[in-house]
Amino acid sequence: MAKTAMPYRRLGACGTKVSAFGLGGWTTFGGSVKDEADVRSILHAAFEAGVNFFDIADVYARGEAERVMGKALAELPRHRLVISTKLFWPMSDDVNDRGLSRKHVMESVEKSLKRIGTDYIDVYFCHRFDPETPIEETVRAMDDLVHQGKILHWGTSEWTGSQIHDACRFADERNLYRPQVEQPQFSLLSRKKFEEDVRPQSDDHGIGFVVWSPLASGLLTGKYDDGVPKGTRLDQIDWLRAQSLVPDKIERVKRMRAVADSLGCSRTQLALAWTAAQDDVSSVILGVTSVAQLAENLGALSVKVDAATSAKLDEIFPPSLG
Fold first, then answer.
1. For residue 225, what pLDDT band results from cuts at 50, 70 and 90?
2. Which among 266, 267, 264, 265 is positioned nearest to 316, based on CA atoms?
3. Type and span of the H or E element at 145
4. What are phi and psi of 173, to 5 degrees?
5. What is the dihedral angle through the alpha carbons of 23, 296, 274, 195, rounded to the nearest 10 degrees?
6. Burial class (CB in 10 A: 0-12, 13-18, 19+), 3
7. Nearest C-alpha neighbor of 315 from the set 188, 228, 225, 198
8. Tens digits of residue pLDDT in 55-78
């Protein structure tokens, strides 16, 4: 299959552009991939393949993902990178070391900047909605970070459509920097929340999407067709295995193979190509543990998902799934 150049897309309505496929650190860098030389080889291979968007979070491996990814990224030209990280989840037992309070926002950004080893963060995500902090407090804190030059943009992750709408409305009414991007879970096996709730209200505000788990934690690759291989993500994470290994889902993934075969690609590549083909998706976040796996994933760039293919996939994976 011929190699296809990486396309770049606007991050929602703003001018910053991100690669159609990004690289994320959840459960991998600093976690299942601890060797710094391995992290470096994967991140540098991604950059050479055209990836400019690298997604992290403070909670990934308790700060270790920020540290090891930051060390590898420091060897690349900073102006060519779009680096994101996140805050929300507890980072210690301290009562204030969690959530989206002004105190936690201001303290967390300093810690992330230090761990990553950068002067600024391109996109700072609120990793979940915080019901204990007024939305006004969080929006004002993020606006202050933009004015201070510590972040360029901010976004949300796994918020509902109404929560995103409220944040945008408050920001617009007070001339504050609004969120530019949402990071939702979205794949052929997880469509309902995104398509019925998040997308309709976010599109109205020009919000872009950088989506995570496009392979449903590997289920869409077909690797779990006949059980759980040792060392895989679902072998290592109990709650994720219980959530993912549902007979109905596995059967749908098996049916998908015929569609992929007709296009001369793997199920992995078809699932990724379908996700990236969505008009309002700015970037699809990949999670890989080797350079070979990265190359397999990026083969999705050469897969064209036309209307007929989309219809076949809709039949197997209806929008009501997930």
1. confident
2. 267
3. helix 135-148
4. -65, -25
5. -40
6. exposed
7. 188
8. 999 999 999 999 999 999 999 999
What token pair was written down for 188? Answer: 């052929």
Nearest to 108 by CA among 142, 58, 146, 73: 58
**Other beta carbons less than 10 A from residue 174's beta carbon:** 12
| d(C-alpha 240, C-alpha 179), whole Å | 29
Angstrom distance (rounded) from CA 260 to CA 296: 14
Residue pair 19/6 in contact (Cβ under 8 Å)? The answer is: yes
pTM: 0.95
Burial of residue 5 (number of CB atoms within 10 Å: 0-12, 13-18, 19+): exposed
Q: What whole-number distance in Å separates Cα of residue 245 and Cα of residue 232?
A: 13
Q: Are 161 and 128 in contact (CB under 8 A)?
A: no
Determine the Cα–Cα distance for residues 306 and 48; give it in Å rounded to an integer. 28
How far apart (Å, rounded) are the C-alpha atoms in residues 66 and 60?
8
Maximum CA pair distance of the chain?
A: 55
Strands 121-126 and 151-157: parallel
What was the pLDDT predicted at 247?
Answer: 87
Residue 223 has pLDDT above 80, yes or no: yes
Q: Which residues are catalytic?
A: 60
Nearby residues of 238 by Cβ (< 8 Å), 6 or more positions away? none
- What's the token pair of residue 172? 């617009």
Q: Which two tokens stand for residue 241?
A: 């295995």
Task: Return the closest-CA partner of residue 7 out of 24, 19, 22.
Answer: 19
